[in-house]
Amino acid sequence: xxxxxxxxxxxxxxxxxxxxxxxxxxxxxxxxxxxxxxxxxxxxxxxxxxxx
Length: 52
Prior knowledge:
By secondary structure, the chain is mainly alpha-helical. It has 2 helices and no strands. The relative contact order is 0.22.
């Protein structure tokens, strides 16, 4: 149960990090790792929750 919350929280932090990088004008290439980690963590949160 804790893994779900931790993965979801980190996923949201990474979504925010991606948003900040876009807002400050970084290239898409520089912001891609934040986006990929956000997707990975949000997938893990759904997986741990039993949705997938």
